[in-house]
Amino acid sequence: MELPARIVYVCSLCLRQYDLLEDLRGHMMFFHGYKPLPTTGVKQSNVKQTETQLSKRVSMPPPSPSPPAELQPMPFKDFRLALRVNMRVPCAEISGCVYKFEDANKQTLHAKCHKGETYSCSECGQEQANWRRCSAHLWKEHQIDVDLLQCPVAGCDYKSPLSALVWRHMRVHKKWRTRVLRRELWRRRIQKQQQQQQQLLLDEATNSQAPLQPAAEVKKNKYYAEKTCEICQQKFVNGKTLSKHVKTVHNKIKPFICNVCGKKTARKASLIIHMRQHTGEKPLKCEHCKFATRDPSSLFKHRQRHLKDAAATTVPPTS
């Protein structure tokens, strides 16, 4: 099975590769300053009208400066660079630090968090494994923005430390939706082609060897759609469970708060189990003994012990 030929467009100045011609045009205009060719065949009457309008505008005061142009939809490889185009101040605390910032004030905030190879919050002293987690902690807990990437759409306040999360957020805006979904479809298409190539190699290897018994086909549910986390590459059944994973694990969002001690939990079930510590309630009971607990996982482990004991008593003695 032959795969279709892939057409690649290459920039003649920086040799960046693109799969679509319109992506190459946008790259040339945004990064190299090229402008589209003007249309020809302008009528003489239009030229005279523009000349008269210009002569009238000479006596008028100069117009106010126009607002900055809104960022147009572009490929992800250029979008990632455009988000960090204003971050040009490097870190001066450690020579091996690769992070850059918008101004010297944010660079000094970053330098205060340096603790050798690790980082700690300059406000509360909480230690973090890397700078991305420390930056997210400063924003969520203390509302301090050091190097967060902001959505380029005017009026949108979304911020995130990762460009992939900002790119996924751009689906909210109608102008960017087709561009983000197009990249997702292209990624799936390439992944499917790679799987086909691997399957062809496996078929050739099995044909060269002795014939084996055909394996039973695994029937998948047609509603099953596997999702992969872009941060930790963990796989989930659908997008709903993936979004819960990103909110609770990576973004550390814990909306459920205990009214007694102030403990925060990511799930409502965890808060209910925690509240039983304050009330002393143990509603979960074992059917075989007097054991009672407040946690379902503890009850499950207790029942497993009963099953092991029952299996040990029923095993006949060996002669």
From TrEMBL:
Residues 60-70 have a biased composition (Pro residues). PROSITE patterns: ZINC_FINGER_C2H2_1, ZINC_FINGER_C2H2_2. Gene3D superfamilies: Classic Zinc Finger. Residues 42-71 are annotated as: Disordered. The keyword Lipoprotein does not apply. Residues 42-56 have a biased composition (Polar residues). SUPFAM superfamilies: beta-beta-alpha zinc fingers. Its main location: nucleus. Keywords: DNA-binding, Metal-binding, Nucleus, Repeat, Transcription, Transcription regulation, Zinc, Zinc-finger. GO terms for molecular function: DNA-binding transcription factor activity, RNA polymerase II-specific; double-stranded DNA binding; sequence-specific DNA binding; zinc ion binding. Residues 227-255, 256-283 form the C2H2-type domain. InterPro entries: Znf_C2H2_sf, Znf_C2H2_type. It is found in: Nucleus. Pfam families: zf-C2H2, zf-C2H2_4. Belongs to the krueppel C2H2-type zinc-finger protein family. PANTHER family: TRANSCRIPTION FACTOR (TFIIIA), PUTATIVE (AFU_ORTHOLOGUE AFUA_1G05150)-RELATED, ZINC FINGER PROTEIN. This is Zinc finger protein 337. It comes from Drosophila albomicans. The gene is LOC117568460.
